[in-house]
Amino acid sequence: MPITADLLVRAETGTGKTLGFLLPTIDQLLQKQTAEDYRKGRACKALIISPTRELALQIAEEANRLCARLPLRVSCFVGGENRRNNVRDIQSHRMDVLVATPGRLEDLLESETMLQEQVKGLQVLILDEADTLLEMGFRDSLTRIIEHLPDSRRTMLFSATLSQEVKSVVRLAFRNEHKLIDTIGHDKKPHVPERIRQNYLMASSEQHPMLLRRLLARHGQKVDHPGKVIVFFPTTKATMLYADLFRAAGFRDIFEIHSKRDQKQRQRVADRFREAQGPAILFTSDVSARGVDYPGVTLVVQMGASAGSDQYVHRCGRTGRAGQEGRAIGIYAPFERNFVESSLADLGLTYDPELEARLATTELRRERLAELNFEQAKEDLDPMVIEEMFTAYLGFYAGRASELSIRNKQMIVEEGGQLTKGFGLAEPPSLSRSFLERLGFGDKPMRRDSSRDFRGNRFERRGSSSFGGGFSRDGGRSRSFDGSANNRRDDRSRSFSGRFDRDGGRSRSFSGRFDRDGGRAHSDDAPRRPAPRGFRDFN
After folding, report:
1. What single string gives the DSSP state of each residue in 324-349?
2. How many CA atoms, within 13 angstroms, populate the side-chain half-sphere of residue 440?
3. Partners of 535 in the beta sheet?
4. Distance between CA atoms of 245 and 273, rounded to whole angstroms?
5. Nearest to 518 by CA among 424, 423, 385, 421
6. Is 394:412 a contact under the CB 8 Å cutoff?
7. Dist. CA 367–CA 71, nearest whole Å
8. Closest among 424, 426, 432, 421 to 484, alpha carbons compared
9. For residues 261, 266, 272 and 276, what is the CA-based torsion angle, rounded to 10 degrees?
10. How confident is the model at residue 222 (pLDDT cuts 50, 70, 90)?
């Protein structure tokens, strides 16, 4: 399988393209390996550039399997790992195949003259997920990296799309005439493979936590190997809050990946989820949406809109891998209807009234008891964390109102408030005029005559089932998010007109004490959360 020309390959996610470029690359290296190479063996023969650390590690692992009994050595340079180990690798070991992320590779190329010498013998350059590399802002890094590489190399570029940006990288990276291999079709946009069944539900945001609970519980009760589940959320705060709730409600094998985790923590959790047996559940933001392969995922759930139709496709692509069948279900709020019907309808997504009807009822006594426990678990959530999720929710949708075809932005505020009630707050948080204006809402502040107050470091709660389980609602007093409060017991309420912070507020343990951990021990070794520093931006 010699590489006789530069290749531009358009391929869907989950179609085996990693093996598609590793096999011919390894074959070429073996064919051109000489006795002199065995003695010296210091040149970097093949370079694979990946947009994310997780994907790079996955490619390196696959390459190591293929090279296990061959005279080829695989190295992997990614951000988040000790740079000195990379330098030691460059200075002390042969490096036939190098897998790297752009940032770390550029840094090492600019500072390590030995690596500059090693890449002069490069035979093959592979740019994987080229469209993602560009979306993540790596064009300048790629330009500087390619300046160090010999013109005599062969180049393979893989992408799910052939946008003008991708074509500009073709002109940058290719030194010879290239061939196009399009496995999708000239006029065909990226799509969800037919082997993945897609459905969506439309319900008030207040119902979303309970809908997800029922969906996951019933998926886990399947007799014939239910498989793993990945649940995508629009923000980091939502990912963290849902994970806390489901752990408190007794769900086992809950894993959590988002931008609050550093690279090592995310990789550790990803490895544990990948190795898990049975119906493990991964709650994640879009850091897990592209490229990374988790074997055994039979269901993908999307809680709300993705950043666009392409991202929706990549999320769905986490299931149905390697020719297996998969299921993708979206749970949306009413204001997202235009996005679903205009942007996702052509992708094969259909409304499933039967599934919605099944999830709207609970017949078994065991399920009713489990749902009672789920409602009681909401009492253990920190109200501040719920409110931080609310502000992140508003920030996400306000910033994407146009691309998501949201015509009435006030509905974002209303549905976000309903979601806080779904997590157990008696009333949605009140919002000041200045806060709404900063988000681009021209509406008047939303205020409530009767909402919540601090009581023993918590706001007053309600105990209602999302589908009307007969739980009672408490009355009480509240404070608003502009710092005002009606009959508040103390002055610990805070204004949402301050700075926005990525870390969010301090989380309360399930025993009632305030601590920095956020509650019970996490099944995925979640790190302790830092104390609040105000709010600076949205996650």
Report:
1. --EEEEEEE-GGGHHHIIIIIGGGT-
2. 12
3. 500
4. 19
5. 385
6. yes
7. 57
8. 432
9. 90
10. low
Decide: residue 224, CB within 10 A, 0-12 exposed, 13-18 middle, 19+ buried: exposed
Q: Cβ distance 249 to 318 under 8 Å?
A: no
Place of tokens 């964390």: 385
| Local structure of residue 430 (DSSP, 8 states) | P
Task: For residue 348, list its beta bridge partners.
Answer: none
Query: Token pair of 99, please?
Result: 């897998």
Could you report the per-residue pLDDT of 223-273, keeping only the tens digit for each?
566 789 999 999 999 999 999 999 999 998 999 999 888 877 887 898 899
Domain ranges for the chain = 6-182, 196-372
Can you give the pTM of this predicted structure?
0.64
Assess contact for 6 and 178: CB atoms under 8 A. yes
Q: How many residues does the chain have?
A: 539
CATH number of 196-372: 3.40.50.300
Tokens 């105000």 belong to residue? 534
| Same fold for the pair 6-182 and 196-372 | yes
Q: Residue 327 phi/psi, 5° resolution?
A: -130, 135
| C-alpha to C-alpha distance for 483 and 481, rounded to whole angstroms | 5
Token pair 């990912």 is found at 239
In 3D space, the residue among 303, 456, 329, 466 whose CA is nearest the CA of residue 382 turns out to be: 456
Q: How confident is the model at residue 52 (pLDDT cuts 50, 70, 90)?
A: confident
Q: Which has more pLDDT, 287 or 509?
A: 287
130 close to 161: Cβ distance less than 8 angstroms? no
Query: Taking 80 as the threshold, does the pLDDT of residue 41 lie above it?
Result: no
With tokens 């999307």, the residue in question is: 302
| Pairwise CA distance, residues 316 & 319, whole Å | 6
Helices (H), 17-101: 17-32, 35-40, 53-67, 83-92
Query: Which residues pair with residue 461 across a beta bridge?
Result: 425
> Predicted confidence band at 480 (pLDDT cuts at 50, 70, 90)?
very low
Place of tokens 């990789």: 267
For 361, residues 6+ apart whose C-beta sits below 8 A from its C-beta are 467
Dihedral, CA of residue 398, residue 401, residue 402 and residue 408, to nearest 10: -110
User: Does 6-182 carry CATH code 3.40.50.300?
Assistant: yes
Non-local (6+) Cβ contacts of 72 within 8 A are: 26, 29, 30, 96, 97
Residue 8 is encoded by which pair of tokens?
């531009």
Q: Are 90 and 67 in contact (CB under 8 A)?
A: no
d(CA 417, CA 420): 5
Q: How far apart are CA 261 and CA 448, in angstroms?
A: 36
